[in-house]
Amino acid sequence: MRNARLIARLDVKGPNLIKGIHLEGLRVIGDPQEYARRYYEQGADELIYIDIVASLYGRNSLHDIVSRAARDIFVPLTVGGGIRSVDDVRAMLRAGADKCAINTAALRRPELITEVAQVFGAQCMVLGVEAKRTGPGKWECFTDNGREFTGIDAVEWCRRGYEAGAGEILLTSVDQEGTRKGFDTALIEEVSKVVPIPIIASGGMGSTAHMVDAYEHGADAIAIADMLHYGRATLPEIRAAALEAEMGVRQDVEVA
Amino acid sequence: MGRTVTIVDYGIGNLFSVARAIETAGGEPVFASRFAEVRDAERLLLPGVGAFEPCANTLRDKGLADAVKAFVETERPFLGICVGMQLLFDYSLEYGKHEGLGLVPGHVGAIPSADEAGNRKVPHIGWSRLLRPDTRETWDDTVLAGLPADASAYFVHSYNCFPQDDDWRLAEADYQGFPVCAAIRRNNITAFQCHPEKSGKVGLQIVGNFLDQ
Asked: What's chain A's average pLDDT?
């Protein structure tokens, strides 16, 4: 049985942890460090930080947040938002990140995927994909956190990203994000048919049944935001529900 | 013996997390990029991420490959992590055949890629349980002493170590039917394919055990 990772996703704007709906309509939740530490203590398998306005304003406020997190959080940290170059990736890794998620800059210049994979290894190069349904069985890529439409087919882009050297795909459904109505499982299934690398399903988890559904449709990792940030469930509860449903997850977690 | 761990700093990867894990486990991390600092360390840690060849070349170009070998001859405790484990072997087959340090006979080869149903994805990314190989009766007196029975660690790799002698296998992981060489031990060398510094409390316990060696 394959083990899926339970990942806490923290979207950040400036110094704040925020949460939106369809990647918009943002609400401030609190201090990202406080939440990140809690999720680590509760046994998160990984953390993802996304600076949701970095591409838009051409800046990144994540360095400080990440280097604070890396001081006492000993699980992998993925960081995305506004990363445009090999040097940006290097700076993020120096700050304490393990992997970088790249969306906008990769769509503008796909060679960046290969450059990052060659310098730091494919395991470091996470392709961030924001997909919006445009018809039955059809999705297109968005950039700048769901704001800019590119006209590029999302499933085809995942395949190209894999061929260019991406080691993992962070697959966010813009339609489902923040709705608590479940993941876009058709999207997960289509992407898992065309790439042999791990897929992180993101956007829409409102219940543990949604997580199991995404896993059964091919997700290798589940990004959880809303449910955790608003305290609708804790990671130990979510993990217990996964085990109950015979979904493969890490079992040795001791909750501090 | 003190609690100092010298981390070989050859410009590869994120050393911050490793250093923080050592501190959190009660040790004192020191970075070293000169021959004598590496050879004369009390305890040595060789990290490494990314592809094998750039790591091996950089280590050699900086004159540190010989320093690592000289250290290992002293019989003081050595810990390799990820590519820092793979580098110990004779050679790797990642992007061609590339020579390693030859401190552990054997080689590094690809994890057999996904079958047609896509049941085994490469890279192997995620948490897998650490299993004691049949060749080993106990983990007592190793850095895995005292771990909970179902302890898991975080892995991220596409290549796997194949030691010549199965007796050197310290831990394995079952990655959908493929026996990953999760850790090895040979004389004063201990090395992990997984990342103790990213494996939560289990990882900190492993680092703490290394400090006690």
From this structure: 92
pLDDT in tens, A128-159: 999 999 999 999 999 877 778 899 999 999 99
Q: Is the pLDDT of residue B149 over 90?
A: no
B114: nearest CA partner in chain A: A196
Per-residue pLDDT averaged across B168-191, rounded?
96
Q: Which residues of B touch A (CB under 8 A)?
A: 13-14, 16-17, 20-21, 24, 49-51, 113-114, 118-119, 121-123, 125-129, 148, 150-152, 154, 156-158, 176, 195, 197-204
Distance from CA of A149 to the nearest CA of B (A): 31
What ipTM was reported for this prediction?
A: 0.92
To the nearest 10 degrees (0 to 180), the angle between helices A111-120 and A86-95 is 40
**What domain range is A69 assigned to?**
5-244
Is residue A74, in this structure, part of any structural domain at all?
yes
In degrees and rounded to multiples of 5, residue A101 shows phi and psi of -100, 130
The domains found in chain B, sorted by start residue, are: 4-211 (3.40.50.880)
pLDDT digits (tens, 9 = 90+) for B49-100: 888 999 999 999 999 999 999 999 999 999 999 999 999 999 999 989 999 9
Query: Do A166 and B121 contact (CB within 8 A), yes or no?
Result: no
C-alpha span between A151 and A181 (Å, rounded): 25
> Per the domain annotation, does A79 fall within a domain?
yes
Flag if B114 and A94 touch (Cβ within 8 Å).
Answer: no
**Lateral strand order in the sheet of B44-46:** B28-32, B4-8, B44-46, B78-81, B189-192, B178-186, B169-175
Is residue A225, in this structure, part of any structural domain at all?
Answer: yes
User: B115-127 pLDDT, tens per residue?
Assistant: 655 578 888 999 9
Mutate to test the interface with B, among A250, A251, A254 (most CBs of B within 10 A): A250
Residue B86 near residue B192 (C-beta atoms within 8 A): no
| CATH code (residue A14) | 3.20.20.70
Q: Say whether A11 is catalytic.
A: yes
Q: Is residue A9 part of a domain?
A: yes
The maximal CA–CA distance of chain A, rounded, in angstroms, is 47
Closest CA to A160 of A186, A135, A195, A133: A195
Helix/strand/coil percent split, chain B, to 5: 25, 30, 40
Confidence of residue A4 (pLDDT cuts 50, 70, 90): very high
In total, how many domains does chain A have?
1
